[in-house]
Design a protein that fits this description.
Layout: E1 16-18, H1 20-28, E2 34-39, H2 41-45, E3 55-57, H3 60-64, E4 76-80, H4 88-94, E5 102-106, H5 111-123, E6 129-132, H6 141-147, E7 156-159, H7 162-171, E8 174-179, H8 187-190, E9 195-201, H9 209-213, E10 217-219, H10 232-245
Parallel strand pairs: 2-3, 5-6, 5-9, 6-7, 8-9, 8-10
Antiparallel strand pairs: 1-4, 2-4
Helix pairs in contact: 5-6, 5-10
Protein name: 23S rRNA (Guanosine(2251)-2'-O)-methyltransferase RlmB
GO molecular function: RNA binding; RNA methyltransferase activity
InterPro entries: Alpha/beta_knot_MTases, Ribosomal_eL30-like_sf, rRNA_MeTrfase_TrmH, SpoU_MeTrfase, SpoU_subst-bd, tRNA_m1G_MTases_N
Length: 247
């Protein structure tokens, strides 16, 4: 098995995405297979659809029964196949020669947080995100909605062993910085001029000890003592901005 590859998993059913951003981005992604679309006539008429996608017209109330309660479907729901697996080695090889950051998430399981991190990663042109296979959410409507189209834009690698993946990331020339509230230095003080892989742990627990041990530096964000911590997606966005504007 090649390093950093997500193992094959049994199908858990196809995810359904909803909302204009998630649906339009999925339709525009050549790597995404859309199996079926439901929509209001008004919403569907605004799309350019390939003829191979079966379309079922429905009113808003019927669409609401296809998605979680109160999900803002905006008149569009699709059923899709998950995206193909991505090898970590291939992602790192494709990123050779540029200074874009990489985002690594350690056991971040909330789909809304992962979706929001994907959105920030797209906004700041990150190489991709790396998560564990078993301790990260699957593709889902909630995640795609939070990502606002970025699920189709940002490469997402799932790995079996995050520590080994961090070793491979270091071999590719990235300086691995873990965000931690107990770090002594701020991100600005420790990031230097290298290519950066920013590592973030789950809310509450933070990074696991073994993950911290595979970082080159730990850093904190200079937040007010009035606030104990930031939501992980907010912290990721701030870190990616700081990396983007460093001198």
């Amino acid at each position: 098995m090649r390093k950093g590859h997500r193992p094959s998993q049994p199908a858990q059913g196809r995810p359904r995405f909803w909302g204009r951003h998630a649906v339009i981005a999925a339709l525009a992604n050549p790597d995404r297979t859309v199996k079926r679309l439901w929509g209001t006539r008004e919403a569907v008429s605004a799309l350019e659809l390939p003829p191979v996608i079966p379309v079922t017209y429905a009113d808003a109330a019927d669409l609401g029964r296809l998605v979680p309660h109160d999900a803002p479907h905006q008149g569009l729901v699709i059923e899709v196949d998950p995206l193909p697996d991505i090898w970590l080695g291939d992602l790192l090889e494709a990123a050779q020669g540029d200074r874009r950051p990489l985002v690594v998430l350690d056991q971040v399981t909330d789909p809304h947080n992962v979706g929001a991190v994907l959105r920030s990663a797209a906004a700041f042109d990150a190489v991709g995100i790396v998560t564990q296979d078993r301790h990260a959410p699957p593709e889902s409507g909630a995640l795609a909605r939070s990502a606002s189209g970025a699920l189709e834009l940002v490469p997402w690698v799932r790995v079996v062993n995050l520590a080994r993946a961090l070793d491979e990331i270091a071999e590719a020339g990235f300086w691995r910085i873990g965000l931690s509230g107990h770090a002594k230095g701020t991100l600005a003080q420790v990031m230097g001029d290298s290519r950066i892989a920013i590592v973030l742990g789950a809310e509450g627990e933070g990074m696991r000890q073994n993950t911290e041990a595979h970082c080159d530096e730990l850093a904190k964000l200079p937040i007010s003592p009035k606030v104990e911590s930031l939501n992980i997606s907010n912290a990721a966005a701030i870190a990616l901005y700081a990396i983007a504007v460093r001198g």
